[in-house]
Each structure stands twice: as structure tokens, then as C-alpha cells.
Amino acid sequence: MPAGGIQRVLRDTNSSLEIQPITNTLLGGAATAKHSRVGASVTNMRSNRRTWASFEEMLTAAKEGDPQAQCYLGVCYQTGQGVTLDYHEAVKWFRSAAEQDDPVAQCYLGFCYLAGQGVPQEYGEGAKWFREAAEQGDPAAQFNLGVLYETGQGVPQNYAEAVKWYHEAAESGEPQAQFNLGVFYEQGQVVPQDYDQAVKWYREAAEQGIAPAQCNLGLCYQTGRGVEQSTSEAVKWFIKAARAGDKTAQHNLGVHYATAEPTPEPTPEAEEAAEEKP
User: Fold this and answer.
1) Which residue segment(s) compose the domain that 267 sits in?
2) Tell me: the pLDDT tens digits for 78-100?
3) pTM of the model
4) Does a structural domain hold residue 205?
5) For 198, phi and psi rounded to 5 degrees?
6) Per the domain annotation, does 235 fall within a domain?
């Protein structure tokens, strides 16, 4: 998988503004996804996870066969937190937990196979473990399985299956899945073209800080697709995304300022709104 996801830019044929395409950057797993570049909303899964007072207590529990402790120990070895980074040792503990049907560990193990961390890179095996976790409701695994179906890696390419798993993850609050689902609805691929649905899912993801979703939501406001046309709202969302480093939003904001009517004050309200949390 490309480390940074798809890099191409899709252009809106009705203007010089640009729209962000689907992302295919995999999530590393539920327990650390909130720290990843894209972020994963996995609070429903995490609320049921155990905690330990110390590393030694967790290590003892892992050695005694507790699957959640084994999973977290795997995370420690994968990230080098409290121990020397060791992908092989991480896979050992992920596998022990995954074979006890721990969905978070299954998602991590699937990612290890996709990334070739501690095991030979094998997309089919990665897809197997993502499916195990996805069918238990793990949002990160559902998103990852959707990515594999969209790209045809480890499974036959199937856009309908991709949308199915993106939808499952999106309903659980996974923001990257929400963004991808919005792109499918805006483009009318697999699902009927529905700008209202596109805006719904872009907004869900944008309010969780996903810059490409903020960019595309801004474009919806700029063009009046799925929402009442509002230049001020468009600029607000472009600014949010641009400040997060989104190059497409930066381009769109530049187009706006280059073509806007001169005003005494360059939309300070939009800039103030962009400072506020959604």
C-alpha cells in the first residue's frame, strides 16, 4: 500500500476548484489508531478494554493468557513503549490474542501482514484477520477491509464490498470511512449519486478533524451541492483544512481569494469561525 494513500487529485469539472479523492491509508489498529495520521474513532471498542495498574501487572496477565493484555503487550513491542521495539515479538503476542478472538489484536495482526512487520508481507493473510475483526464490529478493521476490496489487494476488487465495509465503519464513527463513503455518494460510484448523503458523511468526518473531508465539505458549500450555497461556509471549511496542511484546500482557498470581489476586510468572520472547534 502507498504510505500516504492515493496522491492524485480529482478536479470538479464545473470550476477550477479541486476535490479530495478517497484515502486508502490503512489504520494500524484500534488501540493506537487515535494516534495515527488519519485517526480512528474506536471508542465503542475501547470502552470495553481492560486496564492495568502497571506494565508488570499487564505482563503477568499476558503470560497467564489474558487476550487483552497480550494485545496491549504486542502494541508495546510494536511501538517500543516500555520495551525494545521488536516486530516479531509484537506479532507473537498479537497472534496469541487474535487466536482467542480478540478483535483489536486481529486488526493489528492483519496490519502486520499488510505492512510486512514481523512477518512476510501477505495481503491475503492480512485480509483474513481484518475480516475476523470486522465481523466482530471493529471499526478500524472494517475500514481496512474496505480499503482492500477497493484496491483489490488480498481480495478480488469489489467496490460494492468496499462500500459495505466503509458504511459499517462509518456508522460506528470511523472518520476515514465516513470520508470515503462521502466520496462514493458524491461521485455516484456503486451507490446512487446523492449529494445530501455526501454532505452528511463529509460533515461527520470533518467535525472529527479529517482535513480532506473539510475540504470537500467546503466545495459542497461553494457549489451548492447537498447544501444551500454559502461562500462564507465554504471558506470556513477550506481554512480549517488548509491550516491542517491540506494542499487541495490551500489551492481552493487561493482560488477563492484570487477571484473574490475586493472587500475592506478579507472575511474575518470566516477566519474566526475556523478557529473554533466544529
Assistant:
1) 1-23+172-278
2) 999 999 999 999 999 999 999 99
3) 0.80
4) yes
5) -60, -45
6) yes
- Torsion-angle region of residue 112: left (phi > 0), alpha (psi -120 to 50) or beta? alpha
Measured in degrees and rounded to the nearest 5, phi and psi for residue 125 equal -70, -35
Residue 264: the pLDDT is 52
- Residue 113 counted as domain residue: no
The DSSP result for 242-255, as a single string, is HHTT-HHHHHHHHH
Asked if residue 31 lies in contact with residue 108, where contact means CB atoms within 8 angstroms, the answer is yes
* Number of folded domains that form the chain: 1
Over residues 215-230, the mean pLDDT reads 95
Give a yes or no: residue 143 inside a domain. Answer: no
Q: What pLDDT, in 10s, does the model give residues 35-75?
A: 222 223 223 345 568 888 899 999 999 999 999 999 999 99
All three cell numbers of 199? 454532505
Phi, psi of 157 (to 5 degrees): -60, 130
Where does the chain have alpha helices with state H?
43-46, 55-63, 67-79, 87-98, 103-115, 123-134, 139-151, 159-171, 175-187, 195-206, 211-223, 231-243, 247-259, 268-275
Closest CA to 78 of 39, 109, 42: 109
Length of the chain: 278
20-43 b/e with 16+ CB inside 10 Å = b? bbbbbbbbbbbbbbeeeebbbbbe
